[in-house]
Amino acid sequence: xxxxxxxxxxLLGHLSLFGQVTYDTVTINKQLEEVVVVQQKTQPIVExxxxxxxxxxxxxxxxxxxxGVSDPIRYLQSLAGISTNNETSAGIHIQGCDDYQTLTSIxxxxxxxxxxxxxxxxxxxAPHFSTMTxxxxxxxxxxxxxxxxxxxxxxxxxxxxxxxxxxxxxLISSDATLTIPCGKKSALWLSGRASYINMLYxxxxxxxxxxxxxxxxxxNLTYAIHPTENDEIVITGFFSRDNINVADSLTFGVGxxxxxxxxxxxxxxxxxxxxxxxSISYSGFDNHISVNALATDVYTDAGWSxxxxxxxxxxRLRHDIMLNVSADYTHYFYQPLQFSSTGGIGVMELPQxxxxxxxxxxxxxxxxxxxxxxxFAYNVGLxxxxxxxxxxxxxxxxxxxxxFTPAENHEISLHAGSYTQFFHKAGLTGGGLPTDFxxxxxxxxxxxxxxxxxxxxxxxxxxxxxxLQAEGYFKQLYGVVESLGNIVQxxxxxxxxxxxxxxxxxxxxxxxLMLQRNKGIITGYISYSLGWAKRKLPELDGSQEYIYSxxxxxxxxxxxxxxxxxxxxxxVGGQFVLASGLPYTQAEEAYILxxxxxxxxxxxxxxxxxxxxxxxxxxxxDIIKTQEHELGVNLSLYNVYCHKNAQxxxxxxxxxxxxxxxxxxxxxxxxxYGKF
Length: 676
Known about the structure:
The chain has about 675 residues and is mainly β. It contains five helices and 41 strands.
């Protein structure tokens, strides 16, 4: 059976969109910070607004398009302190933290895998949403339990004046959003998107010459009703699905399928000098892998879901004092990785099914802001939580922020806090595939905890035409879970991935800079991040500890984003990325066993890939452009000069390293966009 299993394992471990990804990479992610993206000429493109970053979804369409699509997550990744581990990843890494350590949500309901196209797209259809909020974990006492931070997108909810339709027709996918008024007090928003990437790009979708079939689609539904002037009820549904199929003959094939589902409702009530919001939501993620070879079918299934009830109260006690209180409850239930088989009796031994696991989390938080005078304010917060799976855990996290305004248009902020998280994610592959595993803290895995601090300076100059932001940060992590195995080892150990989980610590620190031009024909920004993400883990046998760079660490990360609008109808923009190569584990020795090359590796993540660089261009022409109507054409070029950026390393004869690339060709995309 190992003749069958090993090729399957290598396929799953190396699968990527236009190339391969090594099975021995470990995916780790980065942490969130706060900023504001706005595309009005009277406001900065990226504006620091206290401890939040607010993104106006309607403004994103004015920025350079990514493969013909205005994707909000892609713009976040170009900001200082926010990055991705590779180009085929829509994950957000804020200040050195993993992407799962940041809560990504719709109206507060979590989305556990917000990626399409192996991470090239996010699951968000921009016109369906009004704003996106980004927060760093250390600030509010009322923030959900996450070590990293928060990215929350709010659906449209304001009463529209008329029926409307907005959409985009491209070479990779098309989407449409309908706005339907339902009387004077309610409205309905419907959005959908579907891909047909195989039609035009099918010949590039291959793995070692084997054809790769891929498609995705998602739907959004939002119903908002305003029964009174002070009350609002919003009901939201979201579903997305991705399908990958690989087959070289009638006797061999692999299928990977995953989907997200979200259902939520919230009631918002305006108080005198405050606001009350209560919500309930269900979020689910499922992943299925099927392998057919030699008349044998092997299936794997894994799932992760949560039921959330959240309450938020904001109340102004005095003109200079604001109080925020939260009370949340979450029930987690997840299905550990399951294996099953049909046909080929006796070909392989599969592990026994594992039961559904549960966990309960309850938390309360309080946050007080006091504006002492015009130049000094402070926030103090406390977040307490209790969690139970097969063991009881407690969290008590104080947070404090000092804000100074020494002069007009200048602000200095000092932050410090602690945070707790009761679930983990680890995996055996990379490349944007949803093959990582969620796990709850229990008797064998402790909760993740962190203590962090940061210093920020922001200023605007020349009548707010230019803005500057600078930040230094430090975060100490505890209870970090890593998987040090690979798929081949997983098979040899009877598919028990928990045997390769190990717990350690981490340390993230760095500097972020951003200079922006907010007004004029040419707008844009230059962002630079200098950061370290170190991890300290024991060997699998516990014999010794070692320190290494997290697999997502980009020591240097430079982004230049420019956008020029001229002649009233033309918009030309581009993005240039220059970043350090990702760490990887270098092989020292190799030998052949049963026809397979077995390598002995040096220090984990002790080497780095070559420098990463890429240029994307976007050009849009508005055929019709009014306040209510829009029709135009966009041409986007991804990787203009066809640079072959290394994304993984494999070894050939004599241990010669072979740099594997992904998306190493120029990818053009033409789309038609409209709003009526």
